[in-house]
Amino acid sequence: MTDATTRSADHALSDGALFSTQLEWIARRAEPLAIPIGALIVGLALFSLFIAAVGKSPSELFELMWRGGFGSMFSIQNTLSRAAPLLLAALCVALPARLGLVVIGGEGAIVLGGVAAAALGTALSGAPAMLTIVLMAIAGMIAGGIWIGAVGALRHYRAVNETISSLLMAYIAIALMNHLVEGPLRDPASLNKPSTEPLAEAYRIGNIPGMDVHWGLVVGIVACVLSWILIEKTRWGFAARIAGDNVRAAQLQGLAVGPLIVGFCALAGAFAGLAGMIEVSAVQGSANGSLAVGYGYTGILVAFLARHNPLAIIPVAILLGGIDASGGLIQRRMDLPDATVLVLQGMLFVVILFSETFYGRFRIFNPDLWKRNA
Amino acid sequence: MDSDIGFWTVPLAILGGAIRVSTPFIFVSLGETITERSGRINLGLEGTLVFGAMTAYAVAVSSGSPWLGVLAAAVAGTAFGAFHGWICKFPKVNDIAIGIAMMLFGMGLAFFFGKPFIQPSAPDLPAIPFGAWSDIPQVRAALNVNVLFLVGVALAVFLWWAFRNTRAGLIVRVVGDNSDAARAMGLNPNTVRLISTAIGGAFAGVGGAYLSLYYPGSWNEGISSGQGLMAVALVIFARWNPLGCFAAALLFGGAGALGPALQSVGVTQGYYLFYAAPYVLTLAIMIATSSRGRSLAGAPGELSVTK
After folding, report:
1. How far apart (Å, rounded) are the C-alpha atoms in residues A153 and B140?
2. Bond into B216 cis (ω within 30)
3. Contact residues for A2 (Cβ-Cβ < 8 A; gap 6+)
4. Which residue would you say has higher pLDDT here, B63 or A24?
5. In this structure, what are the phi and psi dihedrals at residue A31, rounded to the nearest 5 degrees?
6. What number is the average pLDDT over the span B187-215?
7. What is the spatial distance between Cα B204 and Cα A129, in angstroms, rounded to a whole number?
8. Structural domains for chain B
9. Mean pLDDT throughout B142-161?
10. A220 or A290: whose pLDDT is higher?
């Protein structure tokens, strides 16, 4: 924009108008940033009170949390490794949420995605590495996509509540995994921890060059960016946002709400299934009970903290990955149970949800209210 | 085993299992019925159940009295429920999402404080041997009925009666069906819902006490495997009818007992799949009883889960 063409004779006035438009622009965008950050601070403050109440030092805890999560190159890499599955697990919540659905059974899709990928990887042993890895990813995505896609279909075509059905399906998925891993797919050599046969070394996803973080992080970030483009820049995303606001209005507009819901849920499940595949191929080397360690549940928290915005998921997942990574250090140094992290997550979650009530309440974020005062 | 009763082992084990396994379902679903009838849904009962189990166990270990444990679990459950009821009264706060958060929070707190109580053993809640007349050990085992089960039966009948015949029952139903009508009657929907959710929490706490003090009868971090959530689905299936909740809880308990019963007669094939039976049954029932376009018969009008 050139100054010469925009400035008129009464440039002082237009300057003022421009300045106030900019201020309004900033104010409107500051709200979705300021409220979650404020909630985060309040949540951490409440957690400090809790830690102080059980007779430990909150400042020591936060110092350890910083050191364990972000304080050194080692801990940052640890944090990023933990953030990788959270990115995909959070997308499994955020995408359906844009349509007004609360899907919380991502854990099931992760587990089945991992089992499907491991089963294919062992069946194809000997095939070219790159091809097999891609096929494993596709298998994981299909398994997860079917699982959560079914939740969406049940929701739309049978009006079955998606929150409860997705959670029930997560328990069914875990039982299915136990059955397969203990029975038909069990590697006889795995005695203490029933697992599928270990993947050939060629089928393992390695680390990002120069880092001790596997490629899953890149996959997760790309998935978040693609999801953001899908929601914000495509007509499907636009349709989904309309349907999320008001299903009946969307139907009156002639939008195919059913395929939209099933499609978004299937994509969400596919991302979670991909997380399972990455967990198998990059971390575990086989499918086993470690697939169900709760990434799906932490992903719910990540998605809500990010207000279901795929781009915001990236920093939030890294933050929660860091808190997760510091759990071991806190446990060892302060003699606190490992559930301390769970308590913190629960507190943050409650405070974040509570903070929803403050949107539109603060005058400073709402330019429409500024003038009324004058 | 001296007396061989062959095939009858399985149905007997399922009957006994149904009575044993169903008790937490009965309490959680009755509590959730009260909450949902008032127009809110509390998914946090899973967390309340786990926290109740831990509290009951810890108090029973420290005091030596299992009943004090049950009481403490009920008080803890009330606190959780009241918190849920209070926080949901603010605009734009989603009761389902808060429930998920409370589930996480309750479990976190339970694991946090429960760590020292994994080792010691607490006194059990007493059971009444209704099967004492029989010489067959399996019959005796199946009919060894815990006192809390009987309390649950009595509560189901009482609530069924109370929803129809008492002033309190009417108030809860009006608030659940139409907030505006309730306000016009001079009722405060938020207060009624807070009380209903608190009572629901107390019931779930008692359900948790049963888990840790009778069956399975110990405290560990895997004590509940979604019973609190299945109970929420069960309430919908039971059409918000306390007697229906009782029947559904028995059915679910039986499904949950299927795996162990078959294992006891030597069926080991697909053992882990039988663990999924209650979840599959819940899901199948939800699919069978829901339908698009037609609202559920008997559903409270203000309930978000059926909208």
Report:
1. 46
2. yes
3. none
4. B63
5. -60, -55
6. 95
7. 52
8. 6-289 (1.10.3470)
9. 93
10. A220
Closest chain B residue to A302, measured at CA: B101
Question: What is the Cα A183 distance to its own chain's centre?
Answer: 32
Please return the burial class of B96, using the count of CB atoms within 10 Å of its CB with bins 0-12, 13-18 and 19+.
buried
Which of these, B42, B41, B29, lies nearest to B246 by C-alpha position?
Answer: B29
Q: How long is chain B?
A: 307
Pairing of strands B127-129, B144-146: antiparallel
Residue in the block written with tokens 């559903």: B299
Name the A residues in 171-190 with CB < 8 Å from any B CB: 171-172, 175-176, 178-179, 182-183
Domain residue limits, chain A? 14-56+336-374, 76-334
Q: For residue A20, give the H/E element and its range.
A: helix A11-53
- Give the architecture (CATH level 2) of A76-334: Orthogonal Bundle (1.10)
- Residues A228/A311, Cβ–Cβ less than 8 Å: yes
Residue with tokens 């609202």: B295
Q: Which of A112, A68, A82, A90 is nearest to A282 (CA)?
A: A82
Question: Which site among A349, A359, A361 would you substitute to test the B interface, given the most B Cβ atoms closer than 10 Å to its Cβ?
Answer: A349
Amino acid (1-letter code) at residue B189: P
> How many residues make up chain A in this entry?
374
**B120: Cα separation from own chain's centroid:** 25
Q: And the tokens for B255?
A: 């499904």
What pLDDT is stored for residue B61 in this prediction? 93
pLDDT digits (tens, 9 = 90+) for A89-140: 999 999 999 999 999 999 999 999 999 999 999 999 888 999 999 999 999 9
Exposure class string for B186-211: b at 16+ Cβ within 10 A, else e: ebebbebbbbbbbbbbbbbbbbbbbb
Report DSSP state, residue B127: E
List the single residue in A160, A168, A297 with the smallest CB-CB distance to B104.
A297
